[in-house]
Amino acid sequence: AGTERARASGQILLHVPYGDGDGEKLDIYFPTEPSETFPALVYIHGGYWQCMSKDYSGFAAPPLVSQGVAVVALGYDIAPKGPMDTMVLQVRRSLAFLVEQYPRIRGIFLCGHSAGAHLAAMALSTDWTEFQVVPDIKGAVLVSGLYDLEPILHTYVNDALNMSREVAQRNSPMRLVTPAAPAACEVLVAVAQHDSPEFRRQSQEYSQALRAAGWSVSLLDLAGVDHFDVIERLSEDSYVLTQVGRRAVPRR
Fold this sequence. Notes:
InterPro entries: AB_hydrolase_fold, BD-FAE-like_dom, GDXG_lipolytic_enzyme, KFase_ver/fungi-typ. It holds the Pfam family BD-FAE. This is KFA formamidase. It is a single chain. The chain is built from 9 helices and 8 strands. It is α/β, with parallel strands linked by helices. It has an 8-stranded mixed β-sheet with strand order 1-2-4-3-5-6-7-8, sandwiched between helices.
């Protein structure tokens, strides 16, 4: 319902292809009063890498587009069609596409939930030399994410993903933390009070690893919410994470 409301107003481009794959499409919600240049928040949906889509990801747009920020809902090929390596590559390619095709965008902010937080964290570990462009990633908001994939290898989650240990290791952001570059973005790791112990543990340990490597990182423990409404409430202007997001994505 929130996405339907967002699509009913403003300037929107739906199903913009950034590649040839069926899932390689973007929805772009432009600012209601765009300036010559504007920042963009790229939202990466969750769903354990095997459900949900960008078509349910526009609910967070209205509070930001009204403040001069574009919101990009990112689609990718979920499992079993898309193996983990492909999903990670698609996210990276989508960011390169935005840089090349929309020069009015100045500054990219990532926001991912659950599996989407994992994919956003993988984007932070990218060697952009092979893409021939370097997205100007200014910040990342990682909500209730998983940053070490090995613990899910022997759970039902891996039935569709079919990851080997090698695939899980090379796609685990926790294993890919590097010393922060001078231009490294700020990272907010958010976790819900009623998230499972594993989500809470991984959020704490990943934020600690980033901080130890010199990144500017904050850990936000959100009271009174669970793994699902922690992100669904982004459609509410008064929600603390919405307010934090507005501060993290300044209007240009």
